[in-house]
Amino acid sequence: MAETKQKKNNGDYTAEDITVLKGLEAVRRRPAMYIGDVSVRGLHHLVYEVVDNAIDEALAGYCRLISVKINENGSVTVIDDGRGIPTGIHKEEGRSALEVVMTVLHAGGKFDKNTYKVSGGLHGVGVSVVNALSEWLEVEVRRDGEVFFQKYEKGDPVAPVKVIGKMAKNEKGGTKITFLPDNTIFKNRSYKFETLAERLRELAFLNKEVTLEISDLRPKQEQTATFHFDGGLVEFVKYIDSTRPSIMKKLVYARGSGIDDGGRAVEVEVAFQYNDQYSENVFSYVNNIHTHEGGTHLVGFRTALTRTLNTYGYKNNLVKEGKITLSGDDFREGLTAILSIKVPEPQFEGQTKTKLGNSEVKSIVESVVSQELATWLDNNPGDAKRIIEKSLRAAEAREAARKARDLTRRKNALDGGGLPGKLSDCSINDPEHCELYFVEGDSAGGSAKQGRDRRFQAILPLKGKILNVEKARLHKILENEEVRNIFTAIGAGVGDEFNPEKVRYGKIILMCDADVDGSHIRTLLLTLFFRYMKPLIDLGHVYIAQPPLYKLKKGKQELYAFDDEERDEIIKRLKGDKTPVAADPNEEQVVAEDGVVVKPGGIIISRFKGLGEMNPEQLWATTMNPDTRTILQVGIENAGEADRTFSILMGDEVQPRREFIEKNAKYVRNLDV
Fold it and tell me: Would you say domain 233-406 falls under CATH 3.30.230.10?
């Protein structure tokens, strides 16, 4: 990788100004180019890169057990029982192939299709990037009867590869990698067990022959989980739909293959069922990579589904000619499906590997699904009839939604021609620089309107809790005035008519109280975005404001704390005390009726119970000023898990919601209940 340096002396630009970054230096200089970012998401991506290498061994038929450990010191160990990274001398490099794989970008066994017929990590940069971004990394390889070892620091080998022992007589081969992320690159090096477990669970569903284990060995966080699913995609669908009643007695499962343009086999596997809800939940994968933007494989599946069900409906007189026309949208209402394909040479659009572009894959998927589904429908007439009847009801609701759209458009409610009366818009109209705050309550809305920067910040107060869209069809949703105001303010349409290019604001910020009601309102809004404006989340437009919980005052000093830990640190700082606050058990405090706490030394602590308690200046300084505020960007790491979570939180089933709350209560910061 080469960089150019900007010269100050009259713009001279010569050969001397070309900087060549050798080895893995380019990765350390620009880590976000390789792992997306250096936040918590990028931190976890390091583990995924190592695990994906092990999964590639599983796809090749050599690995059956993958173990992930979060160690006491914060490092992570990934162990697989595959063939082990080759350790012999690489002819061109003149050093161990293990060292080449660990220290050279684009080095690996993924480029010739003899070693790995199918692979998720196609670029060959995964493990070398992890090495480059680690304070240290140790690799242990078991193969050819011996145990090989090498250690690296910030991507550079400490010593050559050496043999440290012999393998036991019947011991399997494999690779063990332990690494500690570099704290000069990752400010937060704390791994989340649940985040890693979700990805391992997903991989276990997609690769039913593999067992994946995860252990957290950190003090007071000890826990383990093992994932293995003999049913594969069938169990995956049931897991996602576990809180939604199915309308079918038997789930659809299809598997087959076809030949691509290069004469190589493309394997297709799909499982799906219909539930009694209204949203479509289809998750597609290529070589274990979640293609959240879809691609040719998803187009082939949808085409086959629509054509085959339509043909069956007319052939069996379940759909009457001339009465109603069923569309693809009708056949996808209440559908939960997992589509997984294995492609030897996938062509992904963009560097994010989120959309498949291989044109021949469409016809392969379409052929497999059409044949298998037609047979299934003939063998399961009761379920087939229920699917067609549900699709007919969806068509009727679609027509009602069309009429509702037409009515609201005539009232200028969805085309941006008539903005909501409660919306205080900003003066500039460049979406990239505009922000829209959804604010809980008229009181907080009033403070926000007074405290905002009118040039680029718009305010839309919300009257309490909006409609729970998880339990309603679109035509009912469009009848709700509060939801219509949200659609109108954003200005990009709704559902299948949503157009991201028409979004009127680059940042859409949810500003709710830090209490139970505020959390509920925020969840209702996120459900609305996830179900009917999902590109808002995918494109990074949605944020959550972080108003402070406390105001601390000593004399003329006023400081704000966003959680209990920060509050205690500020108290410590104001006291000039070098010991933790909790170390003073005899300290007295007075709690007044209005919730104000007075500490010795004249420190006054106020607990904000709602945004409305802040005056405009406080709201601007703590929550709305781009220079001082903290806002959290909403993203989707695991779409299947996100869908299941929304179904648990906002669906009809009470017991799954109770279990979710009990399990996750430890993550909720101190709320007024």
Answer: yes
- Under the banding of pLDDT at 50, 70 and 90, the label for residue 636 is confident
Q: Vertex 543, ends 642 and 184: CA angle to 5°? A: 90
CA distance 275 to 246: 4
Contacts of residue 641, defined as CB under 8 A and 6 or more positions apart, other chains included, come to: 198, 202
Q: What mean pLDDT comes out for the span 517-545?
A: 90
Q: Once rounded to an integer, what is the mean pLDDT over residues 549-554? A: 86
Residues with catalytic annotation?
Answer: 440, 513, 515, 517
User: In the structure encoding, which two tokens stand for residue 244, read together?
Assistant: 């939604």
Please list the residues that pair with 210 across neighbouring strands. none
- Average pLDDT of every residue of the chain: 85
Angle between helices 516-532 and 639-650 (to 10 degrees): 130
For residue 636, the tally of other CB atoms under 10 A from its CB is 15
* Closest by CA position to 327, among listed 304, 308, 313, 310: 310
Rounded-to-integer distance, Cα 536 and Cα 397, Å: 25
Query: Are 490 and 508 within 8 A, CB to CB?
Result: yes
Q: Which fold has domain 423-546+633-647?
A: Rossmann fold (3.40.50)
One-letter amino acid identity for 290? H
The Cα 61–Cα 71 span in angstroms is: 29
Residue pair 159/55 in contact (Cβ under 8 Å)? The answer is: no
First CA to last CA distance, the chain: 55
Q: What is the pLDDT of residue 15?
A: 53
pLDDT tens across 320-344, in order? 877 788 999 999 999 999 999 999 8
pLDDT in tens, 175-209: 999 999 999 999 899 999 999 999 999 999 999 99
Cβ–Cβ under 8 Å, residues 204 and 212? yes
Query: How crowded is residue 308: how many other Cβ atoms within 10 Å of its Cβ?
Result: 20
Is the predicted pLDDT of residue 2 greater than 80, yes or no?
no
Q: Which of 134, 184, 107, 132 is nearest to 25 (CA)?
A: 132
* E-assigned strand segments in 56-191: 65-70, 76-80, 134-143, 146-153, 156-157, 162-166, 174-181
Residue 592: exposure state from Cβ atoms within 10 A (0-12, 13-18, ≥19):
exposed
Q: Which of 245, 364, 241 is nearest to 296 (CA)?
A: 364
How is residue 613 written in tokens? 């308690």
Q: Is the pLDDT of residue 95 over 60?
A: yes
- For residue 354, the model assigns a pLDDT of 75
Of 76, 316, 59, the closest CA to residue 186 belongs to 76
% residues pLDDT > 70 (the chain): 84
Q: Quote the pLDDT of residue 411.
A: 54
pLDDT digits (tens, 9 = 90+) for 250-276: 999 999 999 998 899 999 999 999 999
CA quadruple 95, 101, 107, 113: dihedral, nearest 10: 110
More confident residue, 279 or 66: 66
Query: Encoding tokens for residue 628?
Result: 């001082």
Going from N- to C-terminal start, the domains of the chain cover: 26-226, 233-406, 423-546+633-647
Task: Give dist(CA 88, CA 100) in Å, integer.
Answer: 10
What superfamily in CATH does domain 26-226 come from?
A: Histidine kinase-like ATPase, C-terminal domain (3.30.565.10)
